[in-house]
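Project standup — Tuesday

K.O.: blocked on the structure for the chain from last sprint. Re-posting the sequence here as requested.
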Amino acid sequence: MMNKKIMLILAFLFGLSCTLQAQIVSDEEDDDIDEEDELVVIDQSGNEEVIEFPEAMTYDLDSLLNEYMSKTYLTSGDCNMKNENPYYPTEVFIERLSRMPTVMEMAHNNVVQNFIDRYCTRLRGTISYMLGASNFYMPIFEEALEAYQIPLELKYLPVIESALNPRAVSRVGATGLWQFMLATGKQYGLQVNSLVDERRDPIKASYAAAHLLSDLYKVFGDWNLVIAAYNCGPGNVNKAIQRSNGEKDYWRIYPHLPRETRGYVPAFIAANYMMTYYSLHNICPMGSRLPAQTDTVMVSQRIHLEQISKVLGIDIEELRTLNPMYRRDIIPGSTTEPYALRLQQTDVNRFIEQLDAIANYRASELLTNRAQVEVNDEIPTYYHKSKRYKKGRKGRAGRYSKASRRAGKKASAKKGRATKSKSKASRGKSSSKSRKSSKKRRR
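H.V.: unblocked you, prediction finished:
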């Protein structure tokens, strides 16, 4: 029974592999990658290997700090630390990684060390931002992971997936904190249409991601392989296993994985290290204060966020940040399918009390889609050159009447017969002429 269940999950995940692997960029597209987005690793034999850096860790820090949550609730750190990265021998990193309270294997090697070094130097500001922003999202991630009995260290996966930006969109279209592709998100219950994209919803996307990770673990039974499959798809991981003669160790199948995935697990291990030992590298977290408590209210009519903003006096950027799933600021609620609106707790009662005023505020300007329209049934005044119209029996504009169409058909048939007989006659004349000319030549 258990084997049958695993086979069903494997078949389902195989269908996902073509959508999951769209999160990575193939080696043919490497020409567009900046050198700053790569790591050069030298192996024990002295050979150089270029590893692509996770896309999210290359985001511009200024753009991350420009997000509403960052501008409103994050401040620069006020701790007195030198802005320099102290040197530690390799043994120290190995010991620290082994002390981390994780289920996952946090192994050390030169690839992991290269990622740690990059985080400690060029990306010090980004790590400081992540530490501050993590206060907003980590409780949500932990709750979802706990619901599916997933190791809690996987809460740092969105750090390298999206830089903790719920509006993040990768160059191949993966969206949200957990970077779901469109088809994968839908298969895990996330609604995506022109107005709503639940991949951007921190809570729903976190539970969908935990569900996906749980399914992947049932297939691979190893968390390093699970997050590799999360990045490039289970199909690519299975191919790498086959090319490695059935090895199921991430570091053994490493050379056969796509280029970005080769750096994905090391980047994840290094992110766990940095989020734990940042202070030992003189990195000061950005100060953060949590947003006011929020609550949801179900909306059963179409409402624009600007209507709520103007009537209740709430900053529209705050509404967008609390409700990132609404792509065009429109809540497409209806009596049959209400949608959730997240507000600060102090605003929920005000919203309910002033719902009519909100719904009527500039409704014709902000909500332009009409529920019902009348068709103009006047007789057309424009006529195509190749068609002549006249009024039919019922007063509608139409082609010729049935009688005239029949007469037209008879006339065209008559004309066709006449043309045929004419062509026969002309062929007969030409043949008689040719016979006469041949007789003259014989004479």
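K.O.: great, moving the ticket to review. The chain has a mean pLDDT of 84. The radius of gyration is 34 Å.
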